[in-house]
Amino acid sequence: MSSRIPRGFKTAALAVAVLIGGLAHAADPVTDLMQAANAPYRMALYKTNGQSQDEAMQALLKAQQTWSKISTQFAAKPAAPYDRDTAFAASVAEVSKVYDQAIKDVSAGQLTQAHNTLEQVREVMADMRQRNNVVVFSDHMNAYHSQMEVIMIHGSDTLAQPKGMLLLTAQTGALSYLAKQLEVQASAELKANPEFTGLLQAVSQSVSKLEAALLNQDSAAVKEATSKLKGPYSKLFAKFG
């Protein structure tokens, strides 16, 4: 694990990749299958964040089974644009190992640990796409998630610093931009989906409440708004991330 690129660096790299024109979009069999595997993966994340060991295990096994199709069909000989990626097979194997470990965690009743273990899948898949100049909507969701975590995990420490309110305002400005990108980068199909637009609006409102609290320089309101960022995002991610 110590050899991993720091999350902050990868977030910046992803943001640059997302903004550069000319990148490929999902239109190849590998990416399409990765996207298909992403839905049960999201459910596994959701269930391991709950209380039911049985439901978490069922979701994990389904996610693992879906990912195994990628390993079976493409690990040895991936289709373009992944065919020149010398790390492709290793990344596929890494995700498989993560699922194996998450299943062990759930079997031991450690759902929180399983959830944290599964977070690695999102990072590996994002790295695979980034290496091969592929961008999908999930990448924009990941970029928002990474910046949200910066604020949620380090927000209190930031506020405690000199000019902490200003520093957190700058960080929230980045989050606000990434929230707007979720709407800009959404497909026409997503934009026409009332459930998607409703969930996205809730995400945008959660950021707006944090921005308002920062503008009012109300520390208590800032902390409350920060604590309410995760809920709306989690609901959007579970369904459309």
The share of residues in extended strands comes to under 5%
Compute the number of strand runs. 2
Number of helices: 11
Overall SS class: mainly alpha
How would you describe what is shown here?
With 241 residues, the chain is mainly α. The chain folds into 2 domains: 24-135, Four Helix Bundle (Hemerythrin (Met), subunit A) (Up-down Bundle); 137-240, Four Helix Bundle (Hemerythrin (Met), subunit A). It is 78% helix and 2% strand. The protein contains 11 helices and 2 strands, in the order αβααααβαααααα. Strands 1-2 form a two-stranded parallel sheet. Residues 1-25 have low confidence and may be disordered.
Quick take:
With 241 residues, the chain is mostly helical.
Based on the model shown, name its key terms.
single chain; 241 residues; mainly alpha; Four Helix Bundle (Hemerythrin (Met), subunit A); 2% strand
SSE topology:
Blueprint: H1 7-19, E1 24-25, H2 29-48, H3 53-74, H4 88-107, H5 111-131, E2 134-135, H6 137-160, H7 164-184, H8 188-191, H9 194-215, H10 219-227, H11 230-240
Parallel strand pairs: 1-2
